[in-house]
């Protein structure tokens, strides 16, 4: 019901507004249109007189040039122009003319008189180069100026007393865009001046005082109203007189009133129909948007309003679609954030458990060697046999080295976790690094009967871009881990593979027991050992792989661990170098 009420309100308001505007326009046309037309006509004529006066003052035309200037303004303004002398007498100027080149190459001027011809007497569509035949009377002794009687392309023999001349039009100025009978209107200026014959002095005094004269005049024969403007020409005792008809506005106003009376019922009917269509067209997207808003209120984002218009409704529809999309994304992100928060809480619990394990591990790792050192020291204080003193001192030094190694690894690991380590990237030989590491572990490998194999892809030093000291630490830790967990009398395989993306893939594989799936992700944690017994004889501080993880992360390497058919393989990647030492 509410949607229909919106459409009904739009229909009523639109209809009333349009009808009110229509009535106001009709009333204004009936009351003010004629006055507005007269005012506009007067203003236009005043501007034309000023333009004519400026050109007259600037060019000072005479004779034919003055006639051409006069004719041009008459055509442009659809008005009759005349120039009067200081006694308000009309100068003998014929603004319209034709110039021809006759068959005997004479130049002939055809003067178009104000009386004796109508516009229909002149052939229409004339242009320079057209051939024309004129019957008329020569007006000078040299037979160069003629007053025409008829103008025609071709014709029979001329009437008695007329001369026929044929030739090519070279230049002309004829009535254009003028009223129905411009020659008759131009001749009416003489009638106006005759009526003013007894009032010349009063008109002249008024012109000399104000410089302009505005009045209206009625043609007694036709009853048509004319407006007349006069203005003095600067620098001379001459005046320009302009006369134009007001008949068109009267006819227009009368026809407009008849048209309004006839068209009013049709317009009212069209207004009602169009208002109804318009109200429904406007309310339809509002209804759709209202339904979409209800769905959004229920957090239902499955259906969106499909309004394709490029107006405010289209913008509102697109904004609602964007809003619903953003709400949907926000809800999904909130759900994901809640899940992430839940995971973070689990991670926090796991971290707390690791912290407890870390404290327990540190306590365990430090308590045992400290207890041993204390026992050996007490034995020395009690004066043990001489043959045991050297052994006790060696064990005290060994346990001290082990604690130093543990504390050093813990300090190194804390630097990585605090992001306080900066790499010194340079080009270095990875193959040389592997050989040096293998040489340092030769004693341990001999004691377990271990051998190694290097699997190389191609030749060269296998240059990589890395921090050499940190990378050596990675190789030493991984080889130490492999040797520690390798079965006796087995082989450690070291593989170097060049990849298409410019990286070197390193794999260190030992033969031995596999790692359980539950331990795969935790072996990189602090103090985590696969051996639950924490047998100290197996060596290591439990921090080596955690340090390896941080170093490889800083190098942007891909790394991991996997079980193989014979044991366990650790792998990582490095960016190869072309031999320069730049970062």
UniProtKB/TrEMBL annotation:
It comes from the Bacteria. Residues 280-332 form the HAMP domain. Pfam families: HAMP, HATPase_c, HisKA. Coiled coil: none annotated. The chain crosses the membrane at residues 259-278. Its EC number is 2.7.13.3. It is found in: Cell membrane. Residues 361-578 form the Histidine kinase domain. Keywords: ATP-binding, Cell membrane, Kinase, Membrane, Nucleotide-binding, Phosphoprotein, Transferase, Transmembrane, Transmembrane helix, Two-component regulatory system. It is a multi-pass membrane protein. This is histidine kinase. It catalyses: ATP + protein L-histidine = ADP + protein N-phospho-L-histidine. GO terms for cellular component: plasma membrane. Its main location: membrane. One of its GO terms (molecular function) is ATP binding. Signal peptide: none annotated. One of its GO terms (biological process) is cellular response to phosphate starvation.
């Amino acid at each position: 019901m509410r949607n229909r009420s919106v459409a009904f309100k739009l229909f009523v308001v639109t209809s009333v507004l349009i009808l009110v505007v229509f009535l106001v326009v009709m009333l204004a046309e009936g009351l003010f249109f004629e006055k507005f037309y007269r005012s506009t006509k007067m203003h236009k004529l005043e501007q034309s007189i000023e333009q004519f006066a400026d050109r007259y003052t600037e060019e000072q035309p005479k004779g034919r040039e003055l006639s051409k200037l006069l004719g041009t303004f008459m055509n442009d303004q659809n008005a009759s122009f005349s120039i009067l002398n200081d006694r308000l007498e009309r100068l003998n100027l014929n603004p319209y003319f034709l110039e021809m080149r006759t068959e005997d190459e004479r130049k002939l001027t055809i003067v178009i008189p104000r009386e004796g011809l109508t516009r229909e007497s002149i052939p229409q569509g004339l242009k320079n180069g057209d051939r024309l035949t004129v019957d008329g009377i020569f007006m000078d002794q040299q037979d160069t100026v003629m007053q025409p009687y008829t103008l025609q392309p071709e014709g029979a023999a001329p009437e008695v007393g007329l001369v026929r001349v044929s030739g090519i039009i070279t230049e002309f100025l004829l009535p254009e865009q003028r009223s129905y009978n411009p020659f008759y209107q131009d001749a009416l200026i003489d009638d106006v001046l005759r009526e003013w014959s007894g009032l010349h002095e009063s008109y002249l005094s008024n012109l000399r005082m104000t410089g302009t004269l505005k009045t209206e005049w009625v043609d007694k024969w036709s009853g048509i109203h004319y407006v007349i403007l006069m203005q003095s020409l600067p620098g001379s005792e001459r005046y320009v007189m302009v006369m134009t008809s007001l008949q068109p506005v009267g006819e227009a106003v009368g026809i407009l009133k008849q048209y309004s009376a006839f068209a009013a019922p049709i317009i009212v009917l069209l207004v009602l129909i169009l208002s109804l269509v318009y109200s429904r067209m406007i309310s339809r997207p509002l209804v759709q948007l209202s339904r979409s808003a209800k769905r959004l209120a229920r957090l239902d984002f499955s259906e969106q309003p499909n309004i394709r218009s490029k107006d405010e409704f289209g913008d509102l529809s697109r904004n609602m679609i964007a809003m619903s999309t953003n709400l949907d994304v926000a809800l999904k992100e909130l759900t994901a954030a809640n899940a992430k928060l839940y995971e973070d809480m689990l991670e926090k619990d796991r971290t707390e458990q690791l912290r407890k394990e870390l404290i327990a591990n540190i306590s365990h790792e430090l308590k045992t060697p400290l207890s041993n050192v204390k026992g050996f020291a007490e034995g020395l204080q009690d004066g043990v046999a001489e043959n045991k003193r050297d052994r006790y001192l060696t064990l005290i030094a060994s346990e001290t080295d082990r604690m130093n190694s543990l504390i050093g690894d813990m300090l190194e690991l804390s630097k990585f976790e605090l992001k306080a380590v900066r790499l010194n990237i340079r080009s270095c030989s990875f193959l040389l690094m592997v050989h040096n590491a293998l040489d340092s572990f030769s004693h341990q490998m001999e004691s377990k009967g271990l051998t190694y194999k290097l699997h190389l892809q191609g030749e060269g030093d296998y240059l990589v871009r890395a921090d050499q000291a940190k990378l050596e630490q990675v190789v030493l830790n991984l080889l130490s881990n492999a040797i520690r967990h390798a079965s006796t009398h087995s082989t450690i395989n070291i593989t170097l593979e060049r990849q298409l993306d410019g990286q070197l893939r390193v794999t260190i594989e030992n033969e031995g027991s596999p790692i359980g799936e539950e331990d795969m992700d935790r072996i990189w944690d602090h103090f985590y050992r696969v051996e639950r017994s924490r047998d100290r004889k197996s060596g290591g501080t439990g921090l080596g792989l955690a340090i390896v993880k941080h170093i490889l992360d800083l190098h942007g390497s891909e790394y991991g661990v996997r079980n193989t058919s014979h044991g366990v393989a650790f792998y990582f990647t490095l960016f190869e170098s072309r031999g320069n030492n730049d970062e």
